[in-house]
Design goal:
Blueprint: H1 8-21, H2 26-38, H3 42-62, H4 67-83, H5 87-98, H6 106-119, H7 123-136, H8 141-153, H9 157-169, H10 179-191, H11 195-207, H12 213-224
Helix pairs in contact: 1-2, 2-3, 2-4, 3-4, 4-5, 4-6, 5-6, 6-7, 6-8, 7-8, 8-9, 8-10, 9-10, 10-11, 11-12
Length: 227
């Protein structure tokens, strides 16, 4: 409730009290970890989410309806580990989340698994799981953006451009605000000898945030393709 009201800090003592009253309250452990994650405290988020995974794993043996919650907790733990730059640890946990057929947000787990593969420079595997993600949910623009990045890093500019066009052009709020997608589409367009279109993407990227790492990279790249 507090998290939904944009009072994440206020949720913490209530969740901690719920856990003290019922240490096997898996949803409370998971929510506490998610709140810490929302606040950027990933080191503090790991323990409660990991405990939620342990509890859901035990409880789902007798109650199969909790299998989806287990997959969600595993996906959340994978995200936390990636934010802590522990990609090798995240990979097997995310794989388990993607294998749960009852998980309604399986495309998100696939998208996160693809991102972990990208960070480990395992691009063919990234492409495979990200293709599965966008097949499951065609409007998953973050998935298409990551797929485009994986293709671009594999020097497949044509497929990168196709995926990034889909990402940016998806008619869902926020899809045309994904700075990294404009950066990688510009890179693909440079490879395809489309400097004018690349400059447009780079300008859009900088407009979305000149001081971010992506914005600074776009500005630098834009100078190299100046007319």
């Amino acid at each position: 409730m507090f998290a939904e009201e944009h009072n994440a800090e206020g949720a913490i003592p209530h969740l901690e009290r719920a856990i003290r009253l019922d240490p096997e309250n898996a949803p409370a452990h998971l929510t506490l970890g998610l709140v810490y994650g929302r606040l950027g405290h990933f080191n503090r988020a790991e323990a409660p989410i990991r405990r939620a995974v342990e509890l859901f794993a035990v409880q789902s043996v007798e109650n199969e309806s909790l299998r989806s919650s287990l997959a969600d907790a595993r996906n959340s733990l994978g995200v936390v580990l990636m934010n802590l730059d522990r990609y090798d640890e995240a990979l097997p946990i995310l794989r388990l989340a993607t294998e749960e057929i009852t998980y309604g947000s399986q495309h998100l787990a696939l998208g996160n698994l693809g991102l972990a593969y990208i960070h480990r420079q395992r691009f063919p595997e990234a492409i495979d799981v990200l293709q599965r993600a966008v097949r499951r949910q065609p409007t998953f623009c973050v998935g298409n953006a990551r797929l485009g990045e994986a293709y671009a890093r594999s020097n497949d500019a044509a497929h990168a451009l196709e995926a990034l066009d889909l990402a940016i052009g998806t008619a869902v709020a926020g899809c045309d605000q994904f700075q990294n997608a404009f950066l990688w589409r510009a890179r693909a367009r440079i490879q395809l000898h489309q400097p004018d279109a690349a400059r447009e993407d780079l300008q859009r990227c900088v407009t979305l945030g000149a001081n971010t790492p992506e914005g600074q990279e776009c500005a630098s790249l834009g100078r190299s393709v100046a007319p």
